[in-house]
């Protein structure tokens, strides 16, 4: 496991604006409830924050970057190379509540992160013009997909209705030869 220091996290967040994906990308950049989580078909082992001081330091840095946000849990993904990927999904498990906020910090090899609007949520179908619903085009528009290059030390934030309305993935990339570590900080709501 890499143990990156806080120094690799800088502090400019570029907001994408008020409309979904409600994601912001910064050029910078373990818990209760986890036993309930099934992730990519397996149940991750829950560790205590106390056993991973470097990860706790990164959590503290993320809290400083996003004042007002609270995270108490972390999923760590390691992509050993371009063949490792995460397929289309949304992180809409009940334990994160109805509008999960997820802060995603990346280290190592840069990879594409793609957001795709869920079917039935396309920007054309959502538009409140006066055409009857059946006459609206079902074609997806450019607004229905967004791609971000997640660089070493970047922070991507998903919030609002992103998980309800969008899927995301990190596709295979033949040219990605080195390891990437992704940390997603989340808030698991206590019952
Ligand atoms: O690796 C990433 O950037 C995304 C990982 C992800 O979507 C997840 O852990 O739920
Ligand atoms: Fe995800």
Automatic annotation (TrEMBL):
GO terms for biological process: DNA alkylation repair. Residues 117-145 are annotated as: Disordered. Substrate binds at residue 92. It holds the Pfam family 2OG-FeII_Oxy_2. Residues 70-189 form the Fe2OG dioxygenase domain. InterPro entries: AlkB-like, AlkB-like_sf, ALKBH2, Oxoglu/Fe-dep_dioxygenase_dom. One of its GO terms (molecular function) is broad specificity oxidative DNA demethylase activity. 2-oxoglutarate binds at residues 77, 79, 89, 168, 180, 184, 186. Residues 123-133 have a biased composition (Basic and acidic residues). Belongs to the alkB family. This is Fe2OG dioxygenase domain-containing protein. The lineage of its organism: Eukaryota, Viridiplantae, Streptophyta, Embryophyta, Tracheophyta.
């Amino acid at each position: 496991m890499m143990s990156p220091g806080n120094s690799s996290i800088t502090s400019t967040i570029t907001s994408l604006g008020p409309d979904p994906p409600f994601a912001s990308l910064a050029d910078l950049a373990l818990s209760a409830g986890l036993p309930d989580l099934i992730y990519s078909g397996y149940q991750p082992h829950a560790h205590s924050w106390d056993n991973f001081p470097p990860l706790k330091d990164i959590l503290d840095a993320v809290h400083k970057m996003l004042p007002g946000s609270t995270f108490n849990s972390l999923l760590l993904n390691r992509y050993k190379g371009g063949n490792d990927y995460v397929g289309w999904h949304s992180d809409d498990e009940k334990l994160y509540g109805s509008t999960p906020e997820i802060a995603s910090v990346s280290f190592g090899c840069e990879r594409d992160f793609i957001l795709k609007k869920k079917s039935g949520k396309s920007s054309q179908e959502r538009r409140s013009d006066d055409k009857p619903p059946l006459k609206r085009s079902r074609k997806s528009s450019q607004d229905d997909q967004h791609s971000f290059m997640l660089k070493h030390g970047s922070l991507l934030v998903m919030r609002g209705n992103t998980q309800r309305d969008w899927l995301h993935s990190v596709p295979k990339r033949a040219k990605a030869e080195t390891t990437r570590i992704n940390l997603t900080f989340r808030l698991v709501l206590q019952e």
